[in-house]
Q: What sequence folds into this?
């Protein structure tokens, strides 16, 4: 069993079908503090990496809800070794708030000799330097439901109560068949396991294309948590998953409905302005040495088409419902020039 990455959760190449380690630190930060960690602005630091699709969700939701003042942000670099994600983008390669180079130090501060993958996203309690949670599906839901006192004016309803059952249902299928489905293709350890994963992935993408052919967003007529979760996989499809993970029935840009849907979201404030295609490619092609032993990062594909007209407005829908778009990203949180279409 060979460890290949700590993106989102530990991943391994094994004989047969890929299995994801889904054991997380499930402590929650809540308004009532029932797990010992109450919502408190300035107390917690979100540690993410632009390269990681699971962490990218938290960057989008934090932006859309306007939680920048309430929850600070630490960004790890796109590459790491088997030990840990690292803060190599910061001066001295040390996070300026947590004072650490290895994210694992925050894990070990909470659970000495933490035995699982050192994953992003993680939320760290700044006073103690301890990881509170790395349960990425719950982190974004709690941003929407537990941190409401600190949402910006005009923040969208990403997890509206009336639509939660449908959002949850869509999210389950998107997670198993698409978000994790691309990994089942890329890390399959046998031909039959790969082909089964490939068929499941494209069956789900066809289902999504059919669903989105007549509605602008996955659930309801506004952006929800479901769109965030699908988008971060679609954004990585052509740069990484099509070639690196052998998800190559066709590119995203050859799937008309999903390509238009993805461009619609990319051009929506809070989505595309969190995408760093340079770091995404560096992470997958350098860190996944078992799949790409040369470490060569491909020069293509051309990503300028992400800014072309998508035509999805004709389906109606209101991206932010009764709310408003978020303001531009803050200084220090902008994707570097040249790392994304401009």
A:
């Amino acid at each position: 069993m060979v460890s290949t990455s700590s993106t989102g959760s530990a991943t391994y190449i094994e004989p047969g079908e890929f299995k994801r380690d889904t054991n997380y630190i499930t402590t929650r930060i809540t308004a009532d503090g029932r797990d010992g960690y109450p919502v408190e602005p300035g107390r917690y630091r979100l540690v993410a990496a632009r390269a990681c699709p699971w962490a990218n969700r938290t960057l989008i939701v934090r932006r859309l809800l306007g939680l920048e003042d309430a929850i600070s942000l630490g960004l790890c670099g796109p590459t790491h070794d088997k030990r840990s994600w690292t803060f190599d983008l910061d001066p001295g390669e040390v996070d300026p708030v947590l004072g650490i180079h290895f994210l694992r130090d925050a894990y070990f501060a909470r659970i000495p000799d933490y035995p699982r993958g050192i994953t992003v996203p993680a939320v760290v309690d700044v006073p103690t330097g301890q990881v509170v949670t790395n349960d990425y599906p719950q982190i974004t839901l709690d941003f929407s439901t537990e941190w409401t006192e600190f949402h910006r004016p005009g923040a969208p309803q990403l997890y509206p109560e009336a639509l939660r059952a449908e959002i949850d249902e869509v999210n389950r299928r998107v997670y198993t068949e698409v978000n994790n489905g691309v990994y089942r293709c890329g890390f399959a350890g046998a031909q039959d396991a790969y082909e089964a994963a490939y068929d499941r992935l494209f069956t789900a993408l066809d289902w999504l294309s059919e669903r989105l052919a007549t509605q602008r967003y996955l659930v309801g007529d506004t952006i929800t948590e479901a769109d965030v979760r699908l988008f971060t996989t679609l954004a990585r499809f052509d740069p990484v998953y099509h070639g690196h993970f052998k998800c190559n029935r066709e590119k995203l840009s050859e799937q008309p409905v999903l390509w238009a849907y993805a461009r619609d979201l990319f051009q929506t404030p809070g989505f595309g302005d969190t995408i760093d295609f340079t770091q995404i490619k560096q992470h997958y092609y350098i860190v996944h040495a078992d799949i790409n032993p040369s470490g060569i990062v491909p020069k293509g594909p051309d990503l300028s088409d992400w800014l072309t007209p998508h035509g999805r407005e004709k389906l109606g829908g209101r991206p932010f419902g009764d709310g408003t778009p978020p303001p531009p990203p803050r200084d220090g949180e902008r994707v570097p020039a040249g790392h994304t279409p401009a």
